Amino acid sequence: MKIAEDKAVSVNYYLTAHKDGGPEELVEQTSVEHPFVFLFGYGQLLPDFEANLAGKQKGDKFDFRIEAAKGYGLVEKDYVVKVNKEAFIVDGKFDDARVKQGEDIAMHDQDGNQLIGKVLEIAEAHVTMDFNHPLAGHDLHFVGEVLEVRDATAEELDHGHVHGPHGHHH
Ligand SMILES: [Zn+2]
Q: Model confidence over 47-76: pLDDT tens digits?
C-alpha cells in the first residue's frame, strides 16, 4: 500500500537542520518504538514533507532536504522586537527569575494568540525578543524509513488524526 490521501502513516526518521551553511544539528529523532504517525493529506505538516513521502510504501527509505523558505520560513527581522520591560513586571518588579537571556518566554499578542519568544538581550528599559520560529532560516534534512501505511479509519478521518498506540488517546 502506497502513501496517499487518507492513509495513516508511521515513519521513523532522523531530522537535522543547518543554517547558512553551518553544521547540521540534530532536531528530532524518532524510533521504531516511538515513530512519528500522521494522517496523510490533512495539511498538518510541511507540504514538502508530504510531497517527498507520497507514493512510498512500508520498508522504503527516504533521504530528502527542505530548504528554509519551504520549511519554517526565513528569519524575519521584523520578528525581533524590543518589548517594554513593563510587560514583564510581576508583583511590582521585573520578573528576572523567568526573563533571562536565552530563555524562551510565552507571551500573547493583541488578539490573544500565544507567541513564544527568545530573550536576546535585557537592556535598561526594554527586552529584545526574537519571535522567529526556532527553525526559521534552517534547511531541514530528513533521513528515515516508512514503517507502516494503512487506510485510516472513518473515525480517524473524522477526527483528523491517527488513533492507536502511537496516535491520539481519548
Ligand atoms: Zn480522535
A: 999 999 999 999 999 999 999 999 999 999
Strand intervals (E) in the chain: 7-19, 25-29, 36-39, 61-66, 80-84, 89-90, 93-94, 104-108, 114-122, 126-130, 138-151
| Residues 44 and 66 grouped into a single domain | yes
| Predicted model pTM | 0.82
Domain that holds residue 112: 77-130
Rg for the chain, CA atoms, rounded: 20
Cα of 82 to ligand 1 centre, how many Å?
Answer: 41
- CATH number of the domain where residue 107 is located: 2.40.10.330
Distance 56 CA to ligand 1 centre (A): 25
Q: From ligand 1's centre to the CA of 143, what distance in Å?
A: 28
